[in-house]
Design goal:
about 450 residues, mainly beta, Methylamine Dehydrogenase, Chain H, five-stranded antiparallel beta sheet, four-stranded antiparallel beta sheet, 2 helices, about 35% strand, globular, WD40/YVTN_repeat-like_dom_sf, Host-pathogen_enzymatic-act, Lipoprotein, Quino_amine_DH_bsu, lipoprotein
């Protein structure tokens, strides 16, 4: 997650937001954040990708000027036990409820033109690439087209694809259960499937499957960094040489590495450990690593806690890591010192995907309430570098977000939560708050702008 000094003005905040259609916009004075400082959590030794837009997010205020304490951990654990579907099941090791395996809806690139052939029409600039966790494919989407016409075609990549990292040469690197797929986005075909060096168990589907999760690409395009989940244990960061297309190094990281990011200079990689409440910082030259605990609500409840980190964004202005929690707290992490500062957020909803624009504006996906009687529904938070927030309501489950180069449009994948999933994405005008829904593949998760 990235955040800090406001280089330029971010996109205009939409007039309508959460609660009664009134603007839910808050400015957070610097003084308000001081009392929430957590301090240094650098631990003993123990990484995510920058695509067209880096990942990152920021804060807001709560009722009475105080951050509300989430539902007690005991209640959250009880909730976890009753959640049959869990896009973020509190339990870290049990079998996940998986969406039905099905092929992606057929959508030929053009009449009489096989997908991936030399005659495939050129993928338009500004198109999207979405990983279909429920169909073992990635789908190309043109958001300028209406409805079903937006879907340009799908390519098989491997079992249960998760994160995507995009290279300047047009190669997309997709983390699947059995390896990293390389996809030529121009030809729309898979050109390689690079197996992992780590044994992550049988190739399966579902939220807790082993294999790749978060993935990132070095700024020079020579290395891919992928977080490999090993069910029941700590994860592994695998380093892939993009020229040789093989794993050249491995580094131990935290449990279930949801997200992997890279510093803008390429010297550090950050692996967000969902079930270990941490970020592992890896130096890319010597692969030394260190763990930073990121737990603004504490670690009480362990694997049974809902209050764990998910996605991270790297702030362009200073390289700080931004991790949103529950639409209430934004952890701002200095990866060099391990110091964690907490700022307020306002969406009051369980949060997953995060992205940050070049001007430092943070975009955060709210997946919906843990407790519908107390918390708000799905949303997209747009947070300026100065801390002003707009919360744009979304309809139904969502997971991850990518942003157009000008920051005016956010693309939010349908995802999969304990409340279900939907096979589409939301196109959000960040200035007006208008939302257009488009069908894509099956249980879409990762998303990048081509």
């Amino acid at each position: 997650m990235t955040e800090q000094s406001p280089p330029t003005a971010g996109p205009a905040l939409p007039a309508a937001a959460h609660r009664g259609g009134e603007a839910d916009v808050h400015a957070v004075p610097a003084a308000d954040a001081e009392g929430l400082t957590v301090g240094s959590h650098a631990g003993p030794p123990g990484v995510r990708a920058i695509a067209a837009v880096s990942r990152g997010r920021e804060a807001g205020t709560m009722a009475g000027g105080k951050v509300k304490r989430r539902t007690t951990v005991s209640a959250l654990v009880a909730l976890a036990a009753t959640a049959a579907l869990a896009g973020c099941d509190a339990s870290g090791g049990g079998p996940a409820a998986s969406a039905p395996r099905s092929s992606a809806p057929s959508s030929p690139a053009a009449p009489g033109t096989p997908e991936g052939s030399s005659g495939t029409p050129r993928t338009p600039e500004g198109a999207l690439l979405v990983s279909d966790f429920g169909a073992d494919t990635v789908t190309f989407v043109d958001p300028s087209r209406p409805g079903e016409q937006a879907r340009l075609g799908s390519v098989e990549v491997g079992t249960a694809p998760y994160g995507i990292a995009l290279g300047e040469d047009g190669t997309a690197w997709v983390a699947t259960a059995e390896g990293v797929a390389a996809v030529d986005t121009g030809a729309r075909k898979r050109t390689a499937l690079i197996p992992y060096a780590t044994d992550s168990g049988p190739v399966t589907t579902g939220e807790y499957r082993g294999g790749g999760m978060g993935i990132a690409l070095s700024p020079d395009g020579e290395r891919v960094y992928v977080g490999v989940n090993v069910p029941g244990g700590n994860g592994v960061l695998e380093v892939i040489d993009t020229g040789r297309r093989e794993v050249v190094a491995t580094v131990p990281v935290g449990r279930r590495p949801f997200d992997v990011d890279v510093s803008r200079d390429g010297r550090q990689v950050y692996a967000t450990g969902h079930d270990s409440f941490d970020v592992t910082v890896v130096d890319t030259d010597d692969r030394d690593s260190r763990r930073i605990e990121v737990a603004p609500y504490g670690t009480e409840g362990g694997l049974g806690s809902w209050l764990k980190p998910h996605y991270t964004a790297v702030r362009p202005s200073d390289g700080a890591l931004l991790l949103p929690f529950e639409g209430e707290r934004l952890a701002v992490v200095d990866p060099d010192t391990g110091k964690v500062r907490v700022e307020r957020m306002t969406a009051d909803t369980h949060q997953h995907g995060a992205a940050v624009a070049e001007d430092g504006t943070l975009y955060v996906v709210g997946t919906g309430p843990i407790d519908p009687s107390e918390h708000n529904g799905p949303s997209l938070t747009v947070r300026t570098p100065g801390g002003r927030e707009s919360v744009i309501p979304l309809d139904g489950p969502h997971e991850d977000v990518a942003v157009s180069a000008d920051g005016r449009t956010a693309y939010v994948s349908g995802g999969f939560t304990r409340d279900g999933y939907w096979n589409g994405l939301s196109v959000v005008d960040t200035a007006t708050g208008d939302v257009t829904r488009l069908p894509v593949g099956v249980r879409p998760l990762g998303i990048v702008v081509l």
